[in-house]
Amino acid sequence: MLNSCTVGEDDNFHYEILPVASVDIPSEFHKGETYGIKVRYYRPSTCHSFNGFYYDADMNTRTIAIRTIVFEQNNCTPLTDNLLEQYINFYVTGNGPFLFKFWQGKNEAGEDIFLEYEVPVID
């Protein structure tokens, strides 16, 4: 079944960052090449739609999370095991290593937790 939504003037929606469940990332990079990184996440309801990535670059550190748009409707259905995947392309412009921090939510103390990968750049 396919659903389609359009955003109009009267639509109520907000944006939400979702945690990353798992990642497939290369074990090494080569400068000047582009790599597709597979990012998996759980869609919490039928009203959540993928809207890109939260992406922050600071020197050789990349912080990444899933950005969704959430339509505030009365007919949203909660989902329990709706694992989806998206690809983010990474073009290697510098020498490594690069540290990738994939946001996985917050711990009991309210601190951000990350799935971290350090990927060397091989010449």
**Percent of sequence in beta strands:** over 45%
Which stretches are low in confidence, meaning pLDDT under 50 for 5 or more residues running? Answer: 1-5
Counted beta strands:
10
Order of helices and strands: EEEEEEEEEE
Summarize the amount of helix as a percent range: under 10%
Structural class: mainly beta
Distance between the termini: 47 Å
Could you report the average pLDDT, rounded to the nearest whole number?
92
Shape: elongated
| Alpha carbon gyration radius | 17 Å
Count helical runs.
0
Instruction: Outline the biggest β-sheet.
Output: 5 strands, mixed
Short recap of the structure:
With 123 residues, the protein is mainly β.
Name some characteristics of this structure:
123 residues; mainly beta
What does this structure look like?
With 123 residues, the protein is mostly beta strands. Helix content is 0%, strand content 57%. The chain contains no helices and 10 strands. Strands 1, 5, 6, 8 and 9 form a 5-stranded mixed sheet that branches. The chain has a 3-stranded antiparallel sheet with strand order 2-4-7, with no helix packed on it. A two-stranded parallel sheet has the order 3-10.
Topology:
Blueprint: E1 13-18, E2 22-24, E3 29-30, E4 34-42, E5 48-58, E6 61-71, E7 83-91, E8 98-106, E9 112-119, E10 121-122
